[in-house]
């Protein structure tokens, strides 16, 4: 498993904390930026990580902005991306199990580093359940056509 990471300035510090957690766990990732707290635009920062997921270069993406909302909206504009903005562990796990989400978005001004790392662990350890959920994911995919 390889992860794609991306953030704007509002999510930069949280991304950096999550990177330390991923390093400790030996999880491979590609950091597509940004690389400072200097102002940048979340739609730009969502693009490369989402393309890395849809191309198969990366399995999942973790995206960060101030609230997690803007970058999740931008991510969901990419065909094949199912991004969820989460601020609790239950939602982070459930979105993998029920929505087959491939992108987890978090807000650096909403979620603390400890919770963010727990959410990443829940997201990455969960598996899509299929079954009745597959029918719903298929309907989401059909909306992209």
TrEMBL record:
It holds the Pfam family LacAB_rpiB. Keywords: Isomerase. The keyword Transmembrane helix does not apply. Its EC number is 5.3.1.6. One of its GO terms (molecular function) is ribose-5-phosphate isomerase activity. It is an enzyme of class 5 (isomerase). PANTHER family: RIBOSE 5-PHOSPHATE ISOMERASE, RIBOSE 5-PHOSPHATE ISOMERASE-RELATED. Belongs to the LacAB/RpiB family. This is Ribose 5-phosphate isomerase B. It comes from Hydrogenoanaerobacterium saccharovorans. The gene is rpiB.
